[in-house]
Amino acid sequence: MELVEESPYRFRIDRHDPMRVPGVVFASRSLLPDAGEDRSLEQVANVATLPGIVDASYAMPDVHWGYGFPIGGVAATDVANGGVVSPGGVGFDISCGVRLLAADLDRDGLRPRLDALMDGLGEATPRGMGRGAVWHLSDRAELDAVLRGGSRYAVERGFGVERDLHRCEDAGAVGDADPARVSERAIERGARQVGSLGSGNHFLEVQAVEEVYDDTAATAFGLRPGQVCVMIHCGSRGLGHQICTDYVRKMEQVMARHGIEVPDRQLACAPVTSAEGRAYLGAMAAAANYARANRQLLADAARKVFARVTGSRLDLVYDISHNLAKIETHGVDGERRALCVHRKGATRALPPGHDDLPDDLRDVGQPVLIPGSMGTGSYVLTGVPGAPAFASTCHGAGRVQSRKQAVRSERGLDPRAQLAARDIAVRGASRRGLAEEMPAAYKDVSAVVAAAEGAGLCRKVARLVPLGVVKG
DNA sequence: ATGTCC
């Protein structure tokens, strides 16, 4: 794949047939994927062939190989000009994302109670493959209410406070969710997992604010140096996975009928305005609401533990997805256009002044939550005016080793002991699960964030370090 | 990511 270096953190893949637009990769040279092991830059070029795509097929500095689209990919299609929506551009874990809460407690004050707190959080957090949930739903109607109402419904049912919703993307619920477009199998898988963490790279971490880069923004977000925080990273569990599976299959069947050809079957898609496109977006929105309710419920469970063990409160900083497609209005060639913006392993980063921000954040911009690899640290960023890529930035460290490779390179080592040696208390997770998530399997999140900032996609606000982690 | 193959 030929890359042209346009500026220090921006590379271009020139348009060549059948690409409709160029590819743009925001990265430093050392962060670029190794073409021998990772074909994600070919995927960037493949995405550029999609009908209706505008500007460019973008990749963030944490780009790596994914299903059809790269993880760390951003692509927007023009709804009124045959623009398509592709389930592979959202990913299997629909509305996977991050929620950050800030405690009225400093790390020194927590130290004597950290072990008891981690024990409590470990017990209160259902996790792992398939097992357990915070909320056992009474019937299908209640699951439909979750699919329509997201965090808002969870708050209405007593799992949170009204203020939480002001600090959630979409005020806690995506509009246009259509539970009727969710298959029975997806419903069955989702019904018993509402309020559960999952496994893999999902986690609940107790963290401390290690460094503040922007006092004004940090204060507006409710963050200060030394403060204890809780970060929750999880998604839509089996429900989102099943919806992605269902609609990839459906779109593979109807693509030819819509006159669409793609270079990779995993890019299955349909026009946004087609019956299949609208059905997917309705089901995807339902899964997004499920993921948000999931994070709301886990946060509520963590709040109860915090109150009992430490006597302190947890205020929501923000809740934001990094796997979603959204219909948004952006300027294209000097015109305002409705675009279907796919962000897969990429985070929306609204700049200061944006209409969709709550009043108390309007002057500083949207909090962007970037989970690092396990045990290394995480970042809080914010959007910047006039940024490229439809107000998007990176979503995390980005894998460099497959799960299998990671397990192999940890052979003979004890991942739990390595974390304990760095004073990080671990609850849950199998040895294998931990080995798959060790920092060696990931890029350096600080380098990823520096590249994202260098590329003009976002600005650093604060860095958080882990004190304890609950894993699936 | 994921009842890691209905």
From TrEMBL:
Lineage top rank: taxon: Bacteria
PROSITE patterns (UniProt xref)? UPF0027 (PS01288)
Could you tell me what the cofactor note in this record states?
Binds 2 manganese ions per subunit.
Quickly give the catalysed reaction.
a 3'-end 3'-phospho-ribonucleotide-RNA + a 5'-end dephospho-ribonucleoside-RNA + GTP = a ribonucleotidyl-ribonucleotide-RNA + GMP + diphosphate
Which Pfam families does the record associate with it?
RtcB (PF01139)
Names of the cofactor(s): Mn(2+)
Is Glycoprotein among this UniProt entry's keywords? no
Q: What is this protein called?
A: tRNA-splicing ligase RtcB
Taxonomic source organism: Micromonospora reichwaldensis
Q: What is the lineage of its organism?
A: Bacteria, Bacillati, Actinomycetota, Actinomycetes, Micromonosporales
